[in-house]
Model the fold of this input.
Amino acid sequence: MKHLKHVIQSIKQQDETSNELQQLIWELICYSPKMPLRLHQQQLINLSEQIQLKAYDRYFSEKELSFPCFIWGEGARTILLIHGWGSKALDFYDLIKGLLTLPDVKVIAFDAPGNGGAEGNLSNLFLFAEAIKEIEKVYGIPDVMIGHSLGGMAAVRVLQETHEFPTHLITIAPLINLKENFKGSMTSVEVSPDNQQLFLDDFETLYQQSINTFHVQEMYDFDDSIKHTLIYEQNDTVTPVADIEKFLAQHPEVIPMKTEHNSHTKIISDPEVISKIVQQLEVQ
Done:
């Protein structure tokens, strides 16, 4: 968090034409703050089986990055959890505890490269997706995939790329529009529209595709191939409710669940949300 604060302060101090400004904007967008584990989270990790996997970082370090994967239970039904930006596996602490009340389950969570305890200074959607695919090589296609925020978008990205589907996809406050999320982050630290556009142009050059393809609606080409439950928050300031509800209108097959008393971060630890997820998975 200290590093991110330093980056933000440095951006605000830069001249509009500074050569360093664009590099700082890349750090603003691609550096994921790393928060230490709390005691109860470490205690839950101690109860898990732990393995290290590797995902190739094509765009930043150009090397294999090691990331930790945690497994609870030995059941036949596999549930994969995908955390959001600036998060980590054990931020799903309450949800993991809830899921472990289900019979015959194996719960898997991981820290994506550049996040939590994984290797990497910078991260992106591609690294999240690559980590998911590496886990699937070891454990197979999960029966249930649960993604929060960017983790929800990463799940959709993997399904688009592989067309290998879980029985049930659950997205919680999923990020819908990466471009608007980036613009919001840059606006919040007073980056000018011209420099925002320069960053977006550089982004498209690096990834060799339009920023507009990083939109869930553009990725979502499998419609009713799986059961999809989308849980969202009326007062979310990260994923606007208008984006969620526009997506839901275009995909009536998706099951919506709306809450009105959470934040983008706290929705994954809300007892009511966890109860609804567990209830849905009980009846499968």
